[in-house]
Amino acid sequence: MPFELPSLSQLNLGVSIPAMSVAVWACILLLIDLWIPKDRKERTAWLAAGGLVFAFVVNLFTFNSGETAFLGMFVADGFTGVLNIVILITAFIAILMSIDYLRRTGTERGEYYVLMLLSISGAMFMAAANDLITVFVALELLSIPLYILAAFRTPDLKSEESGMKYFILGAFASAFLVYGSALIYGATGTTNLNEIFQSVDRVVTQGSTSVFLLLLGAGLVLVGLGFKVAVVPFHMWTPDVYEGAPTPVTAFMSVAAKVGGFGALLRVMMVGLPAFMLQDGATHTAWQQTVWLIAAATLILGNLIAISQTNIKRLLAYSSIAHAGYIMMAVAAAGTQGVGTSAAQAAAVYLLAYMFTNIGAFAVAQALERDDGTGTKLDDFVGLARSQPLLAFMMAVFMLSLTGIPLTAGFIGKWLVFQATLQAELVPLAVIGVLTSVVSAFYYIRVVVNMYLRDTAKEIVLPGESPRLNWAIYLSFAGTLVVGILPALVTGLSSSVNFTALMMP
Question: What residue numbers bound the domain in which 70 lies?
Fold first, then answer.
């Protein structure tokens, strides 16, 4: 039978415009940047930000349309819409953080913003992926620009080391993902997540070989995506990469990579494998126990090792690992029949809350950071409340939100995740989550103690302060408080997240 090219109506490109527009605008901006003078690269930044605003507006029009594009490989549902909002806001704030940072560190080049746009489009495609091939292509589109951005402060050795470590380990992770996808294809005969869902019963009925391929394939996909979201034991790259990369890149990476990774992971597990149960009448999936153990190990290791950190970027790196553990709690909860939708909604809200809080904390750290990359020790925060009371107050709110204190965004995210975990009857995991939250309070409050209860004779200056960076901090601070005080806004938004319709034959 001859191959026929799909028609435009079959491709249905309209619902993919938010992600497509970012990728296309990145290519156009690369050409426009050739005519922008070297000392006027701020224009490239604002053009990139304009592309993000356009994508944000279009995303509102395609929000929860429920349609697919690219012959079923891309889906524009509520989950896609919510994660697109998180990704685009993350990128906009990261661009605000980058403009003056690049100028004062002597790394102002237009391709920085092009690479960031390409990475953003990769994260958006991962969130909307309805096929394992799409997951892989989107993962590479997300990752390859990040490898370059992590090493963007060349010839700074830490930055070059950061990019190299991220690249080498990321290549291994991609290989695991491809191999796992191949095994799932071997077991089911398809890479489409809806068709995989329809094939699971047949695979389980066929017997040992097919079940083994599917189980091993799911495990390898979990390894590949586990690296991207930095869960234990695939977290080793995180502290070194976060410390060495330019601070705006670290802030962007800490959120965008997680959103894309968890978006794809939830898609695979909840659309493709929600009925992968090895025993008749079982209510728990075959992969739940593994995810349960990974979540528990991530919570324990991330929070315990963060206690010994003396650098704010490394502390936030281990904090990022720990927060990946909390989101993995929601993934584990999704493995219980009847809890999947509430678990996905909890994960979406957690990612939104984490975005505002974490990127805000990195922005404050950037304000204290010197041009040579120093100034990020915890001791550099000593006495900050006396010299910069507003900045110290906002940093304190970010730290309390990361801890999960009420009236902050972090509390709402944790509340929903714990609620989903208890609904799934994973009580031991919920207990571990609560206990590690108490542990995390120690190292987060230590930053607050340094700012308010310790003093220094020297006047604290802010080498990295700029009007644009201040706006990034203000936006993050406002988001942290709005989500915490008015949770109905985000819970109402997340109510559109429902995978049930997509899992039906």
Answer: 19-275+287-503
